[in-house]
Amino acid sequence: MNNYKLTFIGFVVSMFIYIGCIILELDLFEKFVALLASLEQFEFDEIIIPIVVFFIFLFIDTARKSKEIKMENAKLNIYKAMLSSSHHILNTFIYQMNIFKITAEETPGFDKKVLVFYEEIIDNASHQINSLSNLTNIDELSIRASVMG
Predict the structure, then answer these.
(1) Which residue from 3, 8, 21, 131 lies 20 to 30 Å from 101 (Cα-Cα)?
(2) Across the chain, what does the average pLDDT equal?
């Protein structure tokens, strides 16, 4: 119902006008034609059809743009949900890998260079997750750039 709210309002208003014309015995079309005839001296009647055509195309263009905006918002919501889920999964993985790090630090003879390399890997992954989370322009190029840079 919410998707057709304006259509419903238009229907109610048009029915109100129709019933009002019947009850009050008004002939709105004849009054409109008389108005156009009175405006003949100002040459407004020639511009009415172009104005109607313009507003039809304006309405179509506005509806198309509205649909595009809804699609972009839906894509953005899906992206944010996917990113949030991925963020959760990767953070869980990093926390589990910290258990590995603690075990490696407590193991005698474990190469310290490997632990330094491990820290660099974890920091890089965390940085990439945060840069993906902070994107303002959601498109393929900016996503790739945030992960590469």
Answers:
(1) 131
(2) 82
